[in-house]
From TrEMBL:
Belongs to the TrpF family. InterPro entries: Aldolase_TIM, PRAI_dom, RibuloseP-bd_barrel, TrpF_fam. The gene is trpF. It catalyses: N-(5-phospho-beta-D-ribosyl)anthranilate = 1-(2-carboxyphenylamino)-1-deoxy-D-ribulose 5-phosphate. One of its GO terms (biological process) is L-tryptophan biosynthetic process. Residues 3-194 form the N-(5'phosphoribosyl) anthranilate isomerase (PRAI) domain. Pathway: Amino-acid biosynthesis; L-tryptophan biosynthesis; L-tryptophan from chorismate: step 3/5. It comes from Micromonospora pisi. It is an enzyme of class 5 (isomerase). Its EC number is 5.3.1.24. This is N-(5'-phosphoribosyl)anthranilate isomerase. Keywords: Amino-acid biosynthesis, Aromatic amino acid biosynthesis, Isomerase, Tryptophan biosynthesis.
Length: 203
């Protein structure tokens, strides 16, 4: 199971995520309590091995802003989390990086993975990064196949049940490994990864 830890802002949190076995780590490069500058993301990403994907997260930014931030930060994947139009995906495809679409049930382009040409879909709550749990029962599981991550209000104590209920290809967490908004806890990061690996091992 693919695990992404999002909204990292410090070197110890990056190290904890990598050591705990995260497959991807996200740097929020758009307005948020977790926002880092492209230069900060570059510095943090330098310690990340190449088999862990570094993801730049954007919401509603013009293509030129995304392009510039990707170049300055050196992230290896792009996550668009604001129901950006298909033209964004077409334009950014030219960078040759994996594209990730973050959306929620009711989002403009629907929940079919790859609908806008993205490589990976994140099905999230309507308030990304809020930690708000949403009603997973509203999800039409039959329409989801392939590469998609479940996100939104996941925590060490509920991620196992979420995996059992929805069988996602992976999971994405931010608030659930924080002590307060924007402040991660390395111990919680480790516990979350353990909870995922334990549950997957049981299935
Ligand atoms: O995390 C943010 O602050 C954020 C801001 C703007 C757009 C997207 C954002 N996060 C996207 C993510 O990938 C989060 O990990 C995902 O929404 C889950 O968040 P949470 O419910 O806090 O675990």
């Amino acid at each position: 199971m693919f695990v992404k830890v999002c909204g990292l802002r410090t070197a110890p949190d990056v190290a904890a995520s990598v050591d705990a076995g995260a497959d991807a780590i996200g740097f929020v490069l758009t307005p948020s309590p977790r926002q880092v500058t492209p230069a900060e993301a570059r510095e943090l990403a330098e310690a990340v091995p190449t088999d862990v994907l570094t993801v730049g997260v954007f919401r509603g930014e013009p293509v030129d802003v995304v392009r510039a931030a990707v170049a300055a930060s050196g992230v290896r994947a792009i996550q668009l989390h604001g129901d950006e139009p298909a033209t964004h995906y077409t334009a950014l495809r030219e960078l040759g990086l994996p594209l990730i679409r973050g959306t929620s049930p009711g989002g403009a382009a629907g929940l079919r993975p790859g609908a806008l040409g993205e490589d990976l879909l994140i099905v999230d709550s309507p308030q990304p990064g809020s930690g708000a749990a949403w009603d997973w029962d509203t999800l039409d599981r039959a329409a989801l196949a392939g590469r998609w991550l479940l996100a939104g209000g996941l925590r060490p104590d509920n991620v196992g049940a979420a995996i059992d209920a929805l069988r996602p290809w992976g999971v994405d967490v931010s608030s659930g490994v924080e002590v307060r908004r924007g402040v991660k806890d390395p111990a919680l990061i480790r516990v979350f990864l353990e909870a995922v690996r334990t549950r997957v091992g049981q299935n």
